[in-house]
Automatic annotation (TrEMBL):
Residue numbers carrying 4-aspartylphosphate: 52
One of the GO biological process terms: regulation of DNA-templated transcription
Gene Ontology molecular function, alphabetical: ATP binding; sequence-specific DNA binding
Name of the protein: Two-component system NtrC family response regulator
Residue ranges annotated for the Response regulatory domain, each copy included: 3-117
Domain of life: Bacteria
One Pfam short name: HTH_8
Claim: DNA-binding is one of the keywords in the record: yes
Domain Sigma-54 factor interaction: 139-363
CDD domains hit by this protein: AAA
SMART domains referenced in this protein's UniProt entry, alphabetically: AAA, REC
Keywords for this protein: ATP-binding, DNA-binding, Nucleotide-binding, Phosphoprotein, Transcription, Transcription regulation
PROSITE patterns: RESPONSE_REGULATORY, SIGMA54_INTERACT_1, SIGMA54_INTERACT_2, SIGMA54_INTERACT_3, SIGMA54_INTERACT_4
Amino acid sequence: MINVLVIDDEKEVGTFFYHLLKDKGYAVTLGHSYKDSQQKIMERSYDLSLIDVMLPDGNGIDLLKEMKKTHPACKVIVMTGYSTVKTAVEAIKFGASDYIEKPFDNLDELEELIDQLLKRPATPIESDLEILADRVGFVIGEHLEMKHLVKIAYKIAKKNVNVLIEGETGTGKEVLAHFIHQASLRSENPFISMNCGAISESLLESELFGHEKGAFTGALKEKKGVVEIANKGTLFLDEIGEASMATQVKLLRVLETGDYMRVGGEKICKTHTRVIAASHVNLAHAVAEKKFREDLLYRLDVVKLNIPPLRERKEDLPLLIEFFLKKLESPLTFSNEAIELMSQYTWPGNIRELFNVIKRSVTLAEDEVSIITPPFLPDKIRHSKIHPTKLLSVQKKTDQYTTHFEPYVMDKVKQILMSWKSDQAIDLDDILQEVRQLEDLIGKAFVTKALKETVGNRKEAAKMLNITERKLRYLLKEKGHFHS
């Protein structure tokens, strides 16, 4: 018999699910608190669990982690209110199969979700995911972080939530946005893409919202904007950080209410488009620098996906090369020596640069050879190895960084201790923020020191620190930077 565990402190919710699932022939166990549910998780195995995010004595996400650790095959649906949707999306990263919002407006959809999860085989939905990715030209590859990112994207695609994609220029943000659109319930409706950084500020508002005839010089006829054209579909706004503050205010209104007005118009229009935004800059940093509205970021950042740069997923180079050769309809291949040189290059332009290099090499090699060898590669790739002088420069920067480390740490610790000893009122959030900044600094300092001692060998540095290379990259690239 199928066993289902329902965890919710609202007894009427538990009663509702008890009768709904009992009528389907399932064995139902109810949990009403964190502590109570911990015991129930240990008592038997379950095929499905519905867990409320907010419990009076604990966090539903922690129960999710315990459930997946104790019963890895158990499907989990997280229940959440609107204000905790972002938390529910995070739950998917910890293994939740899906989430549902309270109150349950559509009971048919709820039943369908439960039935699908219980009837679906225990194996992941990777086959469907890979077929769809191949259809839109999105190469997933073997990089673990990339595989995880695409699984998250696939799961949240059917939800009516906004998505923020961050990543360096050329990493494939638009292709990922198209993948999400195709995996969503909006796939039959338009996918409209617009680069906010490629349009002048004076024209951006008109392109977004449209304009009425005679709204400005040159407006000879009425024009629809992309917000209107993408109605019921998906609107992908690339480089959204380039939009002016005035445009950001109007975009915020669209996200909050769906309302907008054409330039020169007086009538309020309505759109039901889903917005996927992208930026090559960190928008949280842009908010801190007063270059981006915090309330707009809050609306966009319900789900954030960060695409890793190509230099961090070089194991995927052969797959990407094969994909682009197929796209170019070229019978040529790259020699092992050429691929080895390409793997040593840092690819600042990422996937876009890789495609351009492959296209150039194919053009040069066509009618000459059947295998592309190093001479057909650009000079920047053939001579991409790090020279000793460059390594010395890096070491000098490391010395400069570590010189300021000790006094900075001592100063921070002294400030925290002074607050501890003070009899005056304090702001605990400020102190905890100081501690987090100190943690960031210490992590980066130890990694930098280890890299210096291993002459830049990341694998050896990670082994020296007893951390993974992924953790090492995280500390180097994502944590805060020390300023002397």
